[in-house]
Amino acid sequence: MRLLRRPLREDEFWRLIDVLGGSSDDEAVERLTEALRARGRRTAIAFAERLAIVLHDLDREVLADQPVRWSDDDEDDDPIPLSDDSFLYLRADVVARGREMVERVLADPEVLLQHRWDDGEALLYAADEAAGRDIETRVSYETGSNEAHWSRRDVADDDPFVPPVVAVSVADLSQPVEVETHGADGSHRQEVTYLPPDWLHRRTETAVHTGLREAVGDVAVLPQDSPDAWLEVRLGLGTRWDLAPRVESGAAQAWGDGTVTRVHVELPGDEVSALPRTDHVTLLLSVAATCVLAVLPPGHEARPRLQGVATAGRPLLPGS
Q1: pLDDT digit string, tens, across residues 72-119
Q2: Helix, strand, coil: what percent of the chain each, to 5?
Q3: Where are the chain's structural domains?
Q4: Which helix (DSSP H) or strand (DSSP E) does residue 252 occupy?
Q5: Long-range contacts made by residues 56-59, C-beta under 8 angstroms, separation at least 24?
Q6: What are the residues whose beta carbons fall under 8 Å from the beta carbon of 103, sequence distance 6 or more?
Q7: The model's pTM
């Protein structure tokens, strides 16, 4: 008989959150991770379940609509609106500040504007690190999952698929897989593709894809091609640093009549995996932005944003 996996009792959960001392920085999260590790895998899993419930409860459109100030913003910077990811990381920081702060925010969304916030992403992975594996919680805390607190967004079932302006994939070059692809004209061919690395958290890959899409915006990156053309960045995790973008233009899509331009780079998988998980997004997003810049037309409006993203990860690159 399979036992129901239960979330940690609330009082115990909040006592563990108090270990953070009101902070979600790496040092505080490491203290929490060690506390969870000392209590064993079962407690870590139960903690993850309770954390997901609290984050899910904070997932409300009225909170997501509040602009906020971040701790690293300049004093005279205006509050900025939240993306799906930044709203999640904000919610994590709200939790890190304790039970009273969560209750205050739920009671009055404008409390968010009264504080400066940190990126609480690291808290999301504390239980995973303590348990030694990824924990799939029964409750989703992704932005928009708390449907009772979001307005409905109806999408027609017959909406056509629209290729992304730019996409990114992360692949373990030691795990080749041969697949058969079919074109719109009925043609088919064998192609070697690669699986994502086992150690790469699915949320990390999602964050890289989302961050790159937000940096690029909705303007086509390949305006010289047809409207059906799009760009794919392939980050291969192999054995070496080879960050000079290699461009493959005009490959046929697996669907439709358009083409895809691919930009390839290689990073050493063992060195990347050894970094703290919070650095994975920064590094991979930086390299992906550099790939897009390699093919982006001069004067493209996304260049300043992409250059900022690329610069953020340079301290993690060799020789820095």
Answers
A1: 777 767 788 888 889 999 999 999 999 999 999 999 999 999 999 999
A2: 45, 20, 40
A3: 10-149, 166-316
A4: strand 242-252
A5: 56/139, 56/140, 56/141, 56/145, 56/146, 57/102, 57/106, 57/146, 58/91, 58/94, 58/95, 58/102, 58/105, 58/106, 59/87, 59/91, 59/141, 59/142, 59/143, 59/144, 59/145, 59/146, 59/149, 59/150
A6: none
A7: 0.55
